[in-house]
Design a protein that fits this description.
Blueprint: H1 15-26, H2 28-65, E1 74-78, E2 84-88, E3 95-103, E4 107-111, E5 115-116, E6 124-130, E7 133-139, H3 144-155, E8 159-165, E9 170-180, E10 186-189, H4 194-197, E11 211-214, E12 223-224, E13 241-242, E14 247-249, E15 253-263, E16 269-275, E17 281-290, E18 293-304, E19 307-310, H5 312-316, E20 320-328, E21 334-343, E22 354-357, E23 362-366, E24 369-373, E25 386-390, E26 398-404, H6 406-430, H7 453-461, H8 471-485, E27 504-505, H9 513-518, E28 522-523, H10 525-534, H11 536-543, H12 557-569, H13 575-639
Antiparallel strand pairs: 1-2, 1-26, 2-25, 3-23, 3-26, 4-9, 4-22, 5-9, 6-7, 6-10, 8-9, 11-21, 12-15, 13-14, 14-21, 15-20, 16-19, 16-21, 17-18, 17-20, 18-19, 23-24, 27-28
Helix pairs in contact: 1-13, 2-6, 2-12, 2-13, 6-8, 6-10, 8-12, 10-11
Family: Belongs to the FliD family.
Protein name: Flagellar hook-associated protein 2
Keywords: Bacterial flagellum, Cell projection, Cilium, Coiled coil, Flagellum, Periplasm
């Protein structure tokens, strides 16, 4: 376009510059919408952080109010370091117990004799026994390395094997039980002589027969068993009856019948033989002595041909059998021919050549009572609520200490306080108001419509929180403060009613008032450790308690706090979600306006250029006419 100048109004200005200035003036709404979008996006980020912080506090609070919160976790240690370690549950009683470790549980270790390293062993099979388990190894034949590998592959859960080379011609095979304890000692059956040729066991012997002991039942001293279930047991005419064929058990009755005390060997079982018809399944049981008290085991047993087999050795090995429990839930009498305690022989038929170490049980004394266990680890059935590991024998009695482990509870509370303070501090910052800040979209000294609104807007906005005046955040702050400073009912007399009782406050007595007003929580660590050690249940009840005993936590700091936080971070209709959705809609609306206005500016600019072109053409034409008239008038005057 030619660069003409316009006389008068725009003398000396380029037409293109004029068009650009007019277009920029027309662009002003876009700058406003873009600034609004920047503001909306900044708000969305703030709301996103509010959701993150409320969710974090919610998570930490749930950890405090859960049934598994570790306030009352107890730890186990010994007065002599390294003797015992373990953990105790809430059920364990705190205190000290006399402890003595006289013998550690050990593995059964065997060694063969030296044999030719290049020996070739025949194919066949052999069986390895350990405790109640057994594994049969199918050996395809080969040398000692192949035998070692076959045991690892097929019986690795019972035995560990290794091959030791003595010299260039001789090797020794060693085998160690995987499990510790006397009952888990290794035994072998070697019908094909493979292990004998490998130098591990001696001659394989023929298996022995079962030992059968006929039990005599004392019917006169029998006692009713589970009368609520077997209702006719108390009726005199329905008692156990001894006949020539056996013992008759009437329908809907059950009895515990004494016998002469008899030791139950490993793998032993009670065989109950019947005469005539009987149910496919009957509930039968035994009574036995264990650690000074009488225990019972009563369970359904399936019939095999004419017998019921009760696996007594699985439940009471090495214990004394005192009672046989008989029941009949059928509609017709059951006739028992005999009750026999059957003890199978040891499964091994080939004795090891050399025992390096016998399998031993752990032997411990607690308060003078001697106890044996098969293992040194995870012993959870000696003291209620306690699981411990034994690491070494003691030369003299030591003290077993069971005490509250406050570290876990203290760490949990510290994480909760940190999450609370982060949310409180952030919330106060984003709604803070600077009294002298003036949120304006133009500079005070510039009334021009072309003024840039963004810089001054954000300069002023930085003097106040970006969510200044947001009621929902103000309510959140107020609710947090109220929750942290409220009283709560203590379900027990020695319970705690306020957070200050356990060392959590907004500041110690005499602290700066402004800091106290900030509402940030502080922890008196010494006080917190003290209450967690002395009354951990009271601390837990302060955060969550069940005043109605309906198995539902309804009171406490944590419960109240969860109710406050729930509306803020609900996924579908939460406060944060709704705010972000509105802001996204606003941004989308502004983007639509910007796009439409940009289309308008294109046509607006084109129209301006066209109009100025016409104006310039008109000015040029007028100038030509003026020159023409001036020249003609000059000539006419000269001619006169």
């Amino acid at each position: 376009m030619p660069a003409y100048t316009m006389p008068g109004l725009m003398t000396g200005q380029n037409t293109n510059d004029i068009v650009k200035k007019l277009v920029e003036l027309e662009r002003r709404p876009i700058r406003r919408w873009e600034t609004e979008n920047e503001y909306a996006k900044a708000q969305m980020q703030i709301w996103g952080e509010v959701k993150n912080l409320t969710t974090n506090l919610q998570t930490k609070t749930r950890a405090l109010v859960s049934f598994t919160a570790p306030f009352a976790t107890k730890s186990v240690s010994s007065s002599e370091e390294g003797v015992i370690t373990g953990e105790a549950s809430r059920a364990a009683k705190s205190g000290n117990r006399a402890l003595e470790i006289t013998e550690m549980a050990s593995k059964h270790q065997l060694s063969g004799v030296a044999i030719d390293t290049d020996i070739r062993l025949p194919e066949g099979s052999f069986t390895i026994y350990s405790g109640k388990s057994k594994e049969t190894v199918i050996f395809p034949g080969g040398g000692l390395p192949e035998l070692t590998q076959a045991i690892k592959n097929m019986a690795g859960g019972l035995a560990e094997t290794s091959l030791i080379k003595i010299d260039k011609d001789s090797s020794i095979l060693t085998v160690t039980s995987v499990k510790t304890g006397k009952k888990n000692e290794l035994q072998f059956s070697d019908p094909n002589g493979i292990l004998k040729l490998a130098g591990l066991v001696g001659e394989n012997k023929a298996g022995l027969e079962n030992t059968n002991q006929l039990l005599s039942l004392d019917l006169l001293n029998s006692k009713v068993w589970e009368q609520a279930k077997f209702k006719k047991s108390e009726t005199e005419t329905e008692k156990l009856l001894q006949t020539e064929e056996g013992i008759s058990i009437k329908p809907d009755t059950a009895f515990a019948v004494p016998i002469v005390v008899t030791e139950i060997k490993e793998r032993a079982f009670v065989e109950i033989e019947i005469v005539g018809e009987a149910p496919a399944v009957m509930e039968l049981g035994i009574g036995f002595e264990k650690e000074g008290s009488v225990r019972n085991k009563f369970l359904p047993i399936s019939k095999t041909e004419s017998k019921y087999i009760f696996p007594a050795g699985d439940y009471a090995s090495e214990k004394n059998l005192t009672t046989i429990i008989l029941s009949n839930a059928a509609t017709t009498p059951v006739l028992i021919k005999s009750v026999t305690l059957v003890t199978p022989p040891a499964p091994g038929t080939a004795e090891p050549v050399k025992v390096l170490q016998e399998g031993k049980d752990l032997k411990i004394k607690i308060d003078g009572v001697e106890i044996t266990r098969e293992t040194n680890d995870a012993i959870a059935d000696v003291l209620e609520g306690i699981s411990f590991n034994v690491h070494k024998v003691t030369e003299k009695p030591v003290t077993l200490k069971i005490h509250v482990d406050h570290a876990k509870g203290s760490a949990l509370i510290k994480e909760w306080v940190d999450a609370y303070n982060e949310l409180m501090k952030f919330s106060k910052e984003v709604i803070s108001v600077e009294k002298n800040a003036r949120i304006s979209d133009k500079k005070e000294s510039d009334d021009s419509k072309a003024a840039d609104i963004s810089k001054d807007f954000w300069d002023n906005k930085s003097k106040s929180g970006i969510l200044a005046g947001e009621n929902s955040i103000q309510r959140l702050i107020a609710s947090l403060k109220t929750t942290a400073n409220s009283y709560y009912p203590a379900p027990k007399d020695n319970g705690f009613k306020v957070l200050t009782d356990i060392g959590i406050s907004t500041g110690a007595v005499g602290s700066n008032w402004e800091k106290i007003q900030d509402g940030l929580l502080q922890i008196d660590q010494e006080r917190l450790v003290s209450v967690l050690s002395e009354n951990p249940d009271g601390v837990r009840d302060l955060f969550a308690s069940d005043p109605n005993n309906d198995a539902k936590m309804e009171e406490g700091v944590g419960i109240r706090l969860l109710e406050i936080l729930r509306p803020y971070n609900q996924y579908a209709s939460g406060i944060v979600t709704s705010k972000v959705k509105l802001l996204e809609e606003s941004v989308a609306g502004n983007n639509k306006k910007i796009k439409e206005h940009e289309s308008h500016l294109i046509s607006f600019e084109a129209k301006l250029k066209q109009r100025f072109l016409y104006m310039e053409q008109g000015v040029g034409k007028n100038k030509s006419v003026g020159n023409y008239l001036q020249n003609n008038m000059f000539r006419g005057n000269g001619g006169e």
